[in-house]
Design goal:
about 100 residues; globular; mainly beta; about 10% helix; Thrombin, subunit H; 1 helix
């Protein structure tokens, strides 16, 4: 059963934590206004709260979003992890930037 509230859109941009450390080797897979899916070489436990930096358009400034890891799966035949993060308390400004980036 799909529990997603918002539609996901394919997205391939770097994802970094606020210190530009923990997620340096991570790459987003998909994004919605309420969360992001990504691949990481580093295991990140469920319920971990993190501030991540997103840059969704080439000419736009990156912005920070507080997220919470909702699920983690080890990827088959890989040392990487597939991770789902929700944005439970996303500021309206950040949500507007995501929505603007997702407009076709």
């Amino acid at each position: 059963m799909n529990k997603r509230i918002d539609s996901r859109f394919d997205c391939c941009v770097p994802l970094m934590d606020e210190k530009k450390e923990a997620l340096l080797s991570s790459q987003t897979i998909d994004i919605s206004k309420s969360g992001v899916g990504f691949v990481s070489a580093r295991f990140i436990p469920m319920n971990t709260k993190m501030t991540v930096e997103l840059s969704l358009q080439r000419d736009s400034m990156p912005f920070l979003v507080q997220g919470k890891v909702k699920w983690v799966e080890k990827m088959p035949n890989s040392s990487n992890f597939r991770i789902g993060m929700s944005f439970p308390d996303i500021p309206q400004e950040a949500q507007a930037q995501i929505e603007d980036s997702l407009k076709v």
